[in-house]
Specification:
The protein is mainly alpha-helical. Helices cover 74% and strands 0% of the residues. Helix 2 runs antiparallel to helix 3, helix 3 (49-67) runs antiparallel to helix 5 (78-90) and helix 9 runs antiparallel to helix 10 (210-233). The chain is globular and about 60 Å long.
Amino acid sequence: MNKSQKLTKLIFLAMMVAIGVVISPILRVEGMCPMAHFINVTCAVMLGPWYAFICALAIGIIRMAFMGIPPLALTGAIFGAFFSGMLYRLSKGKLICAFLGEVIGTGIIGAIVSYPVMTLFWGKTGLTWFFYVPSFIAGTLIGGSIAFIFLKQLQKAKLLSKFQTALGSNVYEGSDVVTNDAIGIACLGFIGYLATVVIVNNFVTNPTGFVSIIKYIVFAVFIIAAVVFWFVKKPKKESKESYV
């Protein structure tokens, strides 16, 4: 990495920290901050695990200092950022692995670590080791899915590798595009499921019948679409001809 790339990387890191602080309140409730996970996965792919970790750490400290956010701002971000970058690197550039790294790092590891941190340093009572797991996983699925779709579009436009080159980051080619696209469609299904739950809970007093199961129908439609897409678009293997 030359000096120009290093400077570009630091500028990009500062920009991502600023963006992360600004957009973090979107969709936020205690224990769930989807846009933080969007930043994590994007940084992990663009900059690598250690820069992603620094970005998450800086955003968390700023949010705690100026917004009064509890230590969840750190435990719910730094592990996912690092694991996202590591799995992306170990998989040689598979975006779905960056997404899964965020889910595992934040949704499981970060959620479990949050229990003693919130109990000892924040004085929270009535918590259990897995108290934050559901909300953390939900947040990572929403924010991670948005990042996955965003990065997929950059990849399709041949811009992702250009950005990575300009930043002096590792560039990977030849990942399984069709499988990643299919998983991206499935991830949209989860977002559609959550959106349907929110709409029904806010506009329908006593959901019954079709209304009560519409969220599952929306999710199933996306899953079916993902499976169909994969079977239609998957590379066809050349059939071997036998000669007598």
